[in-house]
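just leaving the lab so this will be short. what follows is a protein written twice so to speak, once as letters and once as C-alpha cells for the fold. can you read through it and tell me how you think this chain folds. thanks a lot i owe you, the record is right below.

___
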Amino acid sequence: MFKKLLIIALVIGFLIVNWEGVVWAAEKNTDSKPIIIDRTDYPVLYISRPNLQGEAVWIAQARLQELGFEVEKNGQYNLSTARAVRLFQTANGLKEDGIINKEVWEMLQQGQGEEACLAGEQNNNETHKVAIVIDVNERSLVLYEDYKEKARFSVAVGKSSTPTPLGEWKVVHKSLNWGNGFGTRWMGLNVPWGIYGIHGTNKPGSIGSYASHGCIRMFNRDVEKLYPMVPMGTTVKIVRNGKIEDGNFKPVAMKKGSSSQKVVFVQSRLNDLGIIFDRADGRYGSMTELAVKYFQAWHLLPVTGEMNDETYKAMGMIPSS
C-alpha cells in the first residue's frame, strides 16, 4: 500500500513539475512578437506561441465558419481554430493534426460556401454573357455584359513583392461579410497556387494603388454593387496593359503537372501564336501539353510536350542568340 501511494505521489509530482515547466516556458515567450502571415500562397498555419496572426488566418476562419464549424474570426491561429481545423480534417478524410497546409487550403476552397443571396440579389444574368477584365497597370476593373461595358471601378492590386496573378480565371466562390481586410464581399478565383479574390476593404485609402498581397481590393460600396451582377463561373481576365505577358521573362523547364505564373505566360503565348486550346489558367494539363507538342511538330522540334530553351526560343519568349 505504501509503495502504491509513493508511486502515485511521484507521478503527481512529475506532472506538476512538467506542467509548471510548460507554463513557465509559455510565460517566458510572452514578449515574443507574433508572426504575421498575410501571404496568399497557401501558407502553412499551425499552433505557436504567440499565435500566428494575419489575413491568411482570417481567411481560414471565415471559410470554416461558412462550412458550419464553430470558430471566431479574429485573425489569430489559436487552440479554438486548431480544433475546428481538426474537425474539418476528420470530416474530409485528411490527416488530423490541426495544421493547415496546401491540401487543407485546397479542400477549404471547394464548394460554394455561404453564397446566400441578399434580398434583391437574385441572379438575373442567366441569359447574359458576363465577364470581368482587370488591368493591374491601370488599377481598373471593368464588368462586361454581352460584350458591352456595363460598369468600371477603381481597384487596388498587388505590390511588386506580392503581385496580382495575371491570367484567365473563374469566380468559384462568393461570400458575404468576411470583415477585416476583406470588407463586405468576397469573390474567390481559381488560381492554382494560392488564395486570391476580389473583395472589399477596411483600407479605402489604398484603392487606386499597388497595395495588396495579390488580391483585388475595391471600395465596399463598389464591391456591393458588383457582387450581384457576377454569377458563379464568371470569367475574370487579369492583364497588364491589356496583355498577359512578362516583359522580363526568365524561362524554366516545365511539363505536364506544372502550375505557376510562368505557365500562364506560355499558355498566353500559344494563344497569341494561333494555337487556341483553352484559357491561360496556369495549369499545365493535357491540353497545354498537346498544344506544345503541336507547336514543336510544326517547327520541326523534338516533340516532347515539355517546355525547354529550344521551344522558348522558337516561340519568341527568349532571344534566339
User: Anything to note?
Assistant: The chain has three domains: 32-110, 130-239, 244-321. The chain has a mean pLDDT of 86. Strands lie at 130-135, 140-145, 148-154, 157-158, 167-176, 185-189, 196-199, 210-212, 216-217, 235-239. The CA atoms of residues 255 and 306 lie 5 Å apart.
